[in-house]
Amino acid sequence: MSEPVDSHPLADLPLDQLVACHECDLLMRKPVLKLDEKAHCPRCGYELYAHRHNVVQRSLALVLAALLLYIPANFLPIMQLHLLGQSSNDTVWSGVVGLYNTGMAEVAVVVFLCSMAIPLLKLLCQLAVLLSIRLNIGRSYGLLLYRIYHHLRDWGMLEVYFMGVLVAMVKLVELAELSLGLGLACFISLLLVQVWLEVVMSPHQIWSALSGEDLHACD
Ligand SMILES: [Zn+2]
């Protein structure tokens, strides 16, 4: 028989002191972490929280680096293709235009959204959120933008696009002479910087700084 809720040891705690594991839903008392400490779920081992130092400064540096890489990653050639005396430079943008011109407008729109528009919007949301914490202005807008960012996360699919490029390369290498472009290096760097940013920009610290619960959460 399950335990009555009233006699549960966590039943008397206020809700803001409780946390549920994202993976297995185990309810726990919220851990208090010192710098560079991590809290894991005792049941499934999922990393609940990590308290990192200088979150805002480090994340800002990474967001700016990603924004700088965004333009060459999308507009410099990913690869050069030499076939039967003809050569072509392929960029992410020329891929979108090419799809559109060959009558695949719907696919072109999806590729444009997932590989160009949404990744840029995500970066701009992150930039605005970090600036609102850093400059201590418009935190309510910061909260809204951070919510939007979490919805956009599922739709920016640079990794999928990158896998597509790799598959195309493996198939084309037998048919044509292929040389890799600077755009590919920028594209891979952009992917790595974004992964690094996900690690550094610890969500619970950003949420508590934005909601005003703990103004020094990101120090
Ligand atoms: Zn768990």
Describe the structure.
By secondary structure, the chain is α+β, with helices and mostly antiparallel strands. It has helices at residues 55-75, 92-101, 105-134, 139-152, 158-172, 182-200, 203-211; strands at residues 18-20, 27-29, 38-40, 47-50, 79-83, 86-90, 177-180. A hairpin with a 6-residue loop joins strand 3 and strand 4. Helix 1 packs antiparallel against helix 3 (105-134). The chain is elongated and about 75 Å long. The structure holds zinc ion. Residues 21, 23-24, 26, 41, 43-44, 46 line the site of zinc ion.
Distance between termini? Answer: 46 Å
Number of strands: 7
Shape: elongated
Determine Rg (CA atoms, Å): 22 Å
Which structural category do the helix and sheet elements fall into?
A: alpha+beta
Spans of at least 5 consecutive residues whose pLDDT stays below 50 are none
- Portion in strands: 5-15%
Number of helices: 7
Across the major sheet, the strand order is: 6-5-7
Task: Write out the distinct hetero groups bound to the structure.
Answer: zinc ion
Provide mean pLDDT, rounded: 84
